[in-house]
Amino acid sequence: MLMFGITHILYSSAFGIKPWDLKVGLGIGLVSSFCYTFLYFYLSGPFTYLVAVYVALIGFMGWRAMAGMQLCNDLWTWTKLSACIGSVLFMVSDLTIAVNKFCFPVPYSRVIIMATYYAAQMLIALSAVESKDEEVFIKRK
């Protein structure tokens, strides 16, 4: 859990801190709070606090990826969309792990976890590709 938490911090940093888009942040905060409240009744000992911190970290990572997308104007790109979808899939993967581990067995949990996790990693990795190409293109101008 520690290493995945560090990963979410690094992903958040890579997605950037701007734009803020507080509506998206509030939405993710509400979803994260709901998920933690659901999990809380099944947690005991240090997991009560560790899972809270982890949910906050993954929620922050999801917010940063989703806030950067900006579908309502011309600032969105395929790479930002890729980061957004990847972060949502990462959240689904981790929620499935948590429910399966702490609450009750999730049917086909291994398939759900691995499919969403690897798709998330691929999409997040792809989100970095075009950014590098854009920097090279701008430097050539």
Topology:
Blueprint: H1 2-15, H2 22-40, H3 47-67, H4 78-103, H5 109-126, H6 129-140
Helix pairs in contact: 1-3, 2-3, 3-4, 4-5
Q: Per the principal axes of the C-alpha atoms, what is the gross shape? A: globular
Given helix and strand content, the structural type is mainly alpha
- Termini separation comes to 44 Å
Which sequence of SSEs, written as H and E, runs from N to C? Answer: HHHHHH
Q: Outline the low-pLDDT stretches.
A: none
Number of helices: 6
By oligomeric state, this entry counts as single chain
User: Helical content, roughly?
Assistant: over 70%
Number of strands: 0
Largest sheet: none
Bin the strand percentage: under 5%
Radius of gyration computed on alpha carbons: 16 Å
Mean pLDDT: 92
What do these coordinates show?
By secondary structure, the protein is mainly alpha-helical. It has one domain (1-140). It is 78% helix and 0% strand. The protein has helices at residues 2-15, 22-40, 47-67, 78-103, 109-126, 129-140. Helix 2 (22-40) runs antiparallel to helix 3 and helix 3 (47-67) runs antiparallel to helix 4 (78-103). The longest helix is centred in the middle third of the chain and has 26 residues, at 78-103. It is globular. The mean pLDDT is 92. It is an enzyme of class 3 (hydrolase). Its main location: membrane. Its EC number is 3.3.2.2. GO terms for molecular function: alkenylglycerophosphocholine hydrolase activity.
